[in-house]
Task: structure prediction
Amino acid sequence: MSSRLAAKLAALWRLGFAEATAYRASVLVWVLATSLPLISLVLWRSIAEAGPIGDYDQGGFDSYFIAAFLVRQLSASWVVWDLDRQIRTGELSALLMRPVHPVLHHAVFNLSALPLRTLLAAPVGLAVLLATRGIVVADTALLLGLAIPAIMLAWALNFVTQLAIGCLAFWLTKAAALYDVWLGAYIVLAGYLVPTSLFPAGLAAVARVLPFHAALGFPVELLVGRLSVAEALAGLGLQLGWLALLGPIAAFAWRRGLRAYGAFGA
Amino acid sequence: MPERPAIALERLGKRFRVHEREPGLRATLRALVRREWVEVEAVRELSFTIAAGERVGFLGPNGAGKTTTLKLLAGLLHPSTGKAEVLGFEPAARRPEFLRRIALVMGQKRQLSWDLPALDSFELNRVIFEIPKPDYTRRLAQMIEMLELGAVVGKPVRTLSLGERMKCELVVALLHGPEVLFLDEPTIGMDVSMQLAIREFIRDYHRERGATLVLTSHYMDDVAALCDRILVIDEGQLRFDGSIAELVRRIRPLRRVAIRLDRSLDPGARIELEALGDLGVSEAPRLVLDVAPARVPDAVARLLALPGARDLEVHDAPLEEVMRELFARRGPGEGE
Result:
């Protein structure tokens, strides 16, 4: 990476971080809005009081959902809403006039808000940690190390999916509404409410190869030590595969979208 | 060999597909099932060139295609037909080398981060436009002084007045020293003194850098003060290309001869003057006569012969009247 590009990324990062700080109240609302795994945690641990469900006992649920909350914060993206608004109102024009790719701008702004988001989520997570038996994580450095790229790829998957759907705003009035459909499937199939390994066998097999699981359930299971090294590598491969499929779709939608862009209201 | 123009358009055209429906519930329900699309030709086969350093104003009624043309030249829109070239680049390709040499200022849109001080956005532009630090420091200090922004740039942008914000928008657009500056309604909604300050600033920038200016504005004064060449665009087509004086003579070919009088005209003199041209005001102490250019000498001689005549003036029709006439051919309020 050239030093010029690095300087530009750093400058975008600083501005993004400053913006996130200015919007800290709404960031906190986002954190609370994505605390669904903690509600699942309370539900499942009370169901598991009588005995383990599948291969999850109470402690297993505690670990899984605390990790799910954490991964959700670290992999969060909101580019679909930003893009939808910027395209509809013509705000995108300002980004298009800068010699930095608008997608890169969004990616860096997104990432620059994650530290603050994690910081604001920390007290919530800590309270849950103290109220439960805490989290048990993978016991080898290798598995923990693999969790890092898994979480990064989970973020990339969320970002690219949102980018592709957000680009539909070049043609549709409300593309963000379409993302709600994706989000509905994500909540059910990603392992957000229920670990996918507890699904009925046939459904589990399907759900575990879909991008939803790759964007949440997989890094969570890896983090709490439910996967072998071979399974972890297969999961990373699956994440890369989905990225290789969704990335070009998003790039295509962006390029075609710019041709259709009306820069209205601008 | 003539110098390559800064801007060249060749049969440039832009069509939009917009959907259209009647107001009301029934039409809304029908639009759910079947949308009706209408093709709008915002710009049609526009061809012209602009030399480096020229100051050009786009004039025309609302919805005439001025802003669309500006956006095509800045690279925000892809042309439907024909081609445009700015500084040798195809604008819509938006290459970084191109974007570093131009700027677009939109009176109704902002580049600045809303909840942060303008200085933060300036600093971002310093890095992404690769402005050398000494240049940045010097230009910023100079612009802050000229625009009296010292107390303003450290406050969150959302707390600034419209005029202060627009000044900051100009700074952020000019920090990298663009060679071509596109301005879309830069003084919209501002009071007169703010308009003057902004015009003055833009003129200085042009004088200092020799930049090419392309401007759209509804304020005639903006155009008169900033542009020495006018392009009238209407219904997406070029209707006029020349100086303001030529435009005035084209639309209102009559010259205006004005004089002060002690007392009102007698009927005989009135008939004589009405034969020469259009008699506007004719009550003492003022008389105004619009005449064809060839008849100016006759009119002047006749008017000066009136008893007590003094302070004779001959000039073109006022620009505002010309513009009213130019815009009156289309209804107001159509967006573009």
